[in-house]
């Protein structure tokens, strides 16, 4: 495909979300960050706005929209607060995994409720020893009659204490298996929240599984298919992560423009007086636009792909979008902070929160280094030399 043009409906969707974010999200973003509290009020609003269901078909109670529609909503939410944008993201990730790999029974029991936002989900892959290497996962699941018994520990799990269900990646013999675990049981304990630099308020913490149980029927895909489940939805999640970075970069641009016009040097706004400040602002804008249109393009690829998980073009481009957007976001936030001088370095400034939040995206959903591995591997696989 050559490019992306948003439809009138998508422009309207974005405009209505812009108002919601300005009215409801921007005013509370600082409190969410400083108190590290999960924003339950906003979860109810987001449910009502249909963010969790926009890209799912009506058969599972979705709105039948596109993945690009979802990406536009996420970008707008992240412009207000990255922690708020993560609220619908986990449900969408888990519902997508169940749609791609879950049995009919799993889909019927969980997908419509996730799509409607009646229950909340988390995605539990990372362990203290690794977040990148599936072979180092030690949480293990053993069969006991007609159920799994799961023992181990996960860390850095977003929505760990608020989730009703968790997709837990477990070792079953030599291979990984993904299992849906209901969190309302003694075997599932959410540990303390991580005291993170950024993305505070996303309820990111440890999970302890001490003989947690789940019916065998809660296996996502076949036993041993854990990596396939991971790969099937991680690409989609990377595009969503890229959209979050675009939203944060836009917030950085807005902050640099506002501050540059407010802050004066000998009676003249610094953004009007100093070419150095103008150059910073122009660079922030360039980061936004380069990441934004690549992200939209890859979201559209997801919409037109018949089997995104098996589509090597989409997998390669999703990793590319995540690589570009996370680095663009960090650079944009850093340059926008520079426009603010020391006031940007104060913890309570919006730009310092954006900088801390966006930095997380160079790690989560796969580090930038892992994205490079994915992209280079695909490019090298395609290249034939005489
Ligand atoms: C705010 C936040 C929220 C998170 N939410 C979740 C969540 O909901 N669920 C979840 O499961 N996890 C979550 N994570 C964890 C995150 O996905 C992992 O931290 C991430 O995948 C990196 O894993 P790691 O920290 O163990 O780093 P490691 O894997 O130990 O990597 C350390 C360094 O080595 C490099 N490296 C590792 N392997 C390779 C390789 N093969 N080639 C080249 N370089 C390599 C990495 O790029 C990195 O620079 C979250 C993390 C944060 C910060």
Question: What ligands does this structure carry?
Answer: flavin-adenine dinucleotide
Low-confidence stretches: none
Number of strands: 10
- Under CATH, the homologous superfamily of the largest domain reads Butyryl-CoA Dehydrogenase, subunit A, domain 3
Major β-sheet profile: 4 strands, mixed
How far is the N terminus from the C terminus?
28 Å
Largest sheet, spatial ordering of strands: 1-4-5-8
Q: Topology of this protein?
A:
Layout (H helix, E strand, L loop, with lengths): L7 H28 L4 H10 L17 H14 L1 H20 L2 H13 L4 E4 L15 E5 L2 E11 L7 E8 L2 E8 L5 E6 L11 E11 L3 E2 L5 H37 L1 E2 L2 E2 H4 L1 H30 L7 H28 L10 H10 L8 H15 L4
Parallel strand pairs: 1-4
Antiparallel strand pairs: 2-3, 3-7, 4-5, 5-8, 6-7, 9-10
Bound molecules: flavin-adenine dinucleotide (FAD).
């Amino acid at each position: 495909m050559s490019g992306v043009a948003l439809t009138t409906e998508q422009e309207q969707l974005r405009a209505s979300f812009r108002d919601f974010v300005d009215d409801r999200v921007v005013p509370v973003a600082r409190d969410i960050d400083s108190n590290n509290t999960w924003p339950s009020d906003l979860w109810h609003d987001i449910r009502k706005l249909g963010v969790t269901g926009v890209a799912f078909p009506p058969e599972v109670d979705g709105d039948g929209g596109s993945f690009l529609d979802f990406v536009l909503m996420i970008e707008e939410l992240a412009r207000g607060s990255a922690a708020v944008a993560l609220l619908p993201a986990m449900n969408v990730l888990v519902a997508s995994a169940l749609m791609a790999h879950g049995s009919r029974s799993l889909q019927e029991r969980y997908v419509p409720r996730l799509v409607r936002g009646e229950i909340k989900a988390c995605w539990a892959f990372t362990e203290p020893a690794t977040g990148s290497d599936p072979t180092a996962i030690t949480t293990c699941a053993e069969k006991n009659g007609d159920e799994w018994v799961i023992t181990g520990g996960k860390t850095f799990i977003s929505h760990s204490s608020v989730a009703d269900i968790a997709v837990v990646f477990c070792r079953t013999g030599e291979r990984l298996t993904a299992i849906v675990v209901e969190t309302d049981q003694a075997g599932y304990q959410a540990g303390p929240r991580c005291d993170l630099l950024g993305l505070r308020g996303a309820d990111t913490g440890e999970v302890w599984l001490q003989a947690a149980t789940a019916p065998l029927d809660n296996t996502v895909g076949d036993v041993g298919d854990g990596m396939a489940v991971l790969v099937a939805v991680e690409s989609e999640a990377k595009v969503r992560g890229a959209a979050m970075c675009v939203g944060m970069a836009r917030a950085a641009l807005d902050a640099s423009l506002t501050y540059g016009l407010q802050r004066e040097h000998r009676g003249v706004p610094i953004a009007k007086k100093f070419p150095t400040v103008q150059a910073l602002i122009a660079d922030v804008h360039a980061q936004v636009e380069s990441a934004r249109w690549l992200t939209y393009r890859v979201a559209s690829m997801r919409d037109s792909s018949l089997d995104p998980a098996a589509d090597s073009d989409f997998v390669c481009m999703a990793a590319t979008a995540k690589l570009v957007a996370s680095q663009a976001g960090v650079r944009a936030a850093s340059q926008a902070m520079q426009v603010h001088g020391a006031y940007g370095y104060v913890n309570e400034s919006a730009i310092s929160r954006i900088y801390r939040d966006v930095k997380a995206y160079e790690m989560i959903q796969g580090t930038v280094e892992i994205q490079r591995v994915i992209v280079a591997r695909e490019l090298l696989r395609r290249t034939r030399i005489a």
